[in-house]
User: Fold this.
Amino acid sequence: MFTMYCHENSLRSMIIGKGSNCLFDDLGFDGCVILNQIGFLERIEPGMFRVGSGFRFNHLGILCSNEGFTGLEFAGGIPGTVGGAAYMNAGANGQETADVIDSIEIVTTDGKFQILNRTDLNFGYRTSPFQDMEDLAAIVAVTFQLKHSESARRRQQEYLERGFQGQCPLPKGGGCGPRQIYKAYYAAELIERAGLKGHRVGGAMVSNIHANFFINSGGSTSEDMLELINLVKEMVYQKFGIQLKEEVLYVHPFCNSLNSNSDK
Ligand SMILES: Cc1cc2nc3c(=O)[nH]c(=O)nc-3n(C[C@H](O)[C@H](O)[C@H](O)COP(=O)(O)OP(=O)(O)OC[C@H]3O[C@@H](n4cnc5c(N)ncnc54)[C@H](O)[C@@H]3O)c2cc1C
Assistant:
């Protein structure tokens, strides 16, 4: 397996889903980036889905709600993969990925395949045990257990209509999409109250539509984005005494710490 090859040859490697929670440095990445394309879906029994980690999380959310199952309504608006959602414990509207996981299949850097039961895994707000698992090569598949609900589809429609996900249009032309930057929902309110909506550093800008999204308004460098993140954190701290913590993972170009902008 490729990650095993990297491990044996001391090459840095990283698996990504859609990269929707990653901020890569303009200098690149001195290693191998593996784009996950494990995209199968199996129906084990009513409400139980075993899904490849590269399967699109928003498609899964829509499919489950359409089939009358509750628990993944929130996923309809999340632009990542199943693996990324498990790794980040993605969530919205009072639901999170960990709530409906039954088990997770992983491969370790030395090529071992393991099935982990949800009951043995500790998840937190946008955190999972995988973020600290040094020998994790990849999450391969996730099995979800959902309950029947007549109202799941209607609820998902409501989330999509009122949710902030749809409020932040992708920029036309080049540039990266919007990045949800901070972990807390109220972060947007604090940033807005600090008068930072629309604030720019170079091409990086706090969205005028939803302040928890920072966009590339054209020609932004990763440095612009990092500077804007730090500036906003600093100004919110000065004004409200609250330390924001970014959800987006900065991928360092050289060092071994993938998430050097986070606690990891
Ligand atoms: C417009 C927008 C709206 C968003 N809305 C929300 C929201 O409502 N709620 C929310 O929680 N998040 C939200 N996000 C953040 C992001 O979409 C989620 O964190 C998502 O779960 C990331 O999935 P991904 O596949 O893109 O992961 P990536 O960004 O590709 O990767 C994120 C991390 O997961 C690791 N990873 C990914 N796949 C695997 C795998 N198979 N095995 C091991 N590690 C893996 C990567 O190495 C990386 O460290 C939003 C982002 C955007 C841009």
In short: The chain has a mean pLDDT of 89.
